[in-house]
Amino acid sequence: MEAYAKIPKVLLAAIGSLLMLAALDQTIVSTALPAIMNDLGGLDKMSWVVTAYLLTSIVVAPIYGKLGDIFGRKIVMQFAVIIFLFGSLFSGLANNLLTLIVARAVQGVGGGGLFVLALTLAADLVSPRERGKIQGLFAAVFGTSSIIGPLLGGFFVDNFSWHWIFLINIPICIFAQIIFQFGFKIPHKRKPTNIDYKGAFFLSIALTAFVLIASFSGKEIKIGSSFFYFLLLICFISTWVFVRIEFSTDDPLLPMDLFKLNNFSAYVFIGFLSGAILLSTLTFTPVFLQMAKGYSPTSSGMQILPLTIGIIASTSTCGIVMSKTGKYKLLPTFGSIFLIAGLFWMSRMNAETNGVTIGFILLLIGIGLGPQLSVITTAVQNTVKINQIGTATAALTMFRQIGSTFGVAFFSVIFVLTIKRSMNFLPTEKIFTSPDDIFSIEPGSLVNLNASQIVAVEKSFSAGIETVFFSLVFVAMLNLIASLFAKEITLRS
C-alpha cells in the first residue's frame, strides 16, 4: 500500500469524491426523470436532461487535458470544480425544463474536467509503477458510482425531492476545493505555447453532431431524414478538418503522432470497446430484469451490484500486480477472457434464469471489465512523454465516452429490432393490437396484463437481451485481439 502512503488521505478522498460526482451525474438522473417531468413538464424534451450533460462533458474532455498540461492540473481542476458547482446549484434550483437543461449542460462542462483531471492527477502524485493501485481505486470508484447512480436517484426522489440529486454535490465540491487549495503542493512551470483554438472548435462541432446522432436517431431525429444526413455530414467534415489542423499546427490539441505509438492506439481502442460494453450492460440488464422477470427498479439495481464487486476486486488485484512486477500487458488479456465468458453466458439468460446465476454472471463481467478500466489508463500514461500525460488521458477518456454513447445507441437499435422480430412470430392479434404496443408497457403495469401477454413480453425481451449480449461477445473478442497487439513497456519507477 506504498502508493496510498505517499498521498495525503484527505487529498486522495478529494480526488475520489470528484471522480465519483462526475460518474454519478451521468446516471443518477435516470430514475428521477419521471418526477422531474411531473414537476416541470415537457415530457417530449425529457431525454435532453441526460444528453445535455453527456454532450458537454464529452466535448470538453480533450480541452481540459491540454489545459492541464499547459497551466497545471491544480488550477484547471479548481476551475472545473467551480463550473460543476454552479451547474449543480442551478440544476437544483431550476423551476422550468429549459433552465434545467442549460444548467445540466453547464454541469457537464465541469464534469468533463473532473473525470479527466482526477485520472491525470495520479500521474502528478506517484510513479507509473505505483500508480496502478491509485488508478485501480479510481476505476472502482467510477464503476461503482455509475452503477449506484440510479439507486441514489430513486432514494432522493422517494425520501426528499429530485432537487437534492443536484444540491448534494455542492458541499462535496466545496470540500474538494478547500483540499486542493491547501493540500496540493506540486508546482507547475508554465511553458509559452499557443492554444489550438481551431482544433478545439472543429472537434467540438464533430463531437456535438456525433452525440446528437447517437442519442436521438430513431427518436427526435428520424433515421434517413434530411437532418440525420446533415448531422452525419457535419460530423465527417468537422472530423476531417480537425485532423488536418492537428497535422499542421505546432501545438495540437490531440497530437496525431500519439496514434503512431503502438500502445496508445491499442489501449485507446480498448477504451472505446470497453466503454461500449460497460454502459450497454448497465443499460440493458435492468430493462431485461424489469420487463422479463418483473423486478422493481430498486431490485434490478441491487441485482447489478455483483458487477461492482467484480470491478473492485479485479482493479485492486491489477494494481497490486502492476506495483510488484511493473508489468501490465497480460492483465487486459486475461480480463477479456473473463469478459467473453461472462457476456456469452449472459446471452443464454432468459426469464427462468434465477437471481443467483445472474449475479454470478455479472460478477464475471465485472472481473473482466476491471483491467479495461484501470490498467489501460496507467499504460497510456506510461507510453507518452510526461508533458503529454494530460492530453493522452483526455483522449482515452474521450474515446471511452464515445464508445459508451455509440454502443448504447447501436445496441438499442438491435434490441428494438429483435423484440419486433420476435413479436412477429407470436399471434399478435390475440395478444396486442400491434407489435409496437409492447414498447408502451411500463414495468410496473405488467401485473395488469393477462397470462399470454406476460409470456409474450418475457419471450420478446429475453430474445432482445440474448441478441445484444451475443453481439457484445464479438466486441469483447475485438478487445482481446487489441490487447495482444500491445507491447510490454516496463512501468517507470
Q: What is this entry, summarized?
A:
The chain is mainly alpha-helical and 493 residues long.
Explain what this protein looks like in three dimensions:
This protein is an all-alpha fold and about 500 residues long. The protein folds into three domains: about 1-195, Growth Hormone, Chain: A, CATH 1.20.1250; about 200-250; about 260-490, MFS general substrate transporter like domains (Growth Hormone, Chain: A), CATH 1.20.1250.20. Helix content is about 75%, strand content about 0%. It has helices at about 1-5, 10-25, 35-40, 50-70, 75-95, 95-125, 130-160, 165, 170-185, 195-215, 225-250, 260-290, 295-305, 305-325, 330-345, 355-385, 390-425, 430, 450-485. The longest helix is centred in the last third of the chain and has 36 residues, at about 390-425.
Indicate the structural class: mainly alpha
Alpha-carbon Rg, integer: 22 Å
CATH class of the largest domain: Mainly Alpha
Largest beta-sheet details: none
Helix content: over 70%
User: What is the averaged pLDDT score?
Assistant: 80
Query: Would you give the CATH topology of the largest domain?
Result: Growth Hormone, Chain: A
In percent, how much strand structure appears in the residues? under 5%
Structural domains: how many? 3
Q: What is the assigned CATH homologous superfamily of the largest domain?
A: MFS general substrate transporter like domains
Task: Based on the coordinates given, report the CATH architecture of the largest domain.
Answer: Up-down Bundle
Based on Cα principal axes, name the global outline: globular
Report the uncertain regions.
1-5
Q: How many DSSP helices?
A: 19
Strand and helix order: HHHHHHHHHHHHHHHHHHH
State the end-to-end CA separation: 15 Å
How many β-strand runs?
A: 0
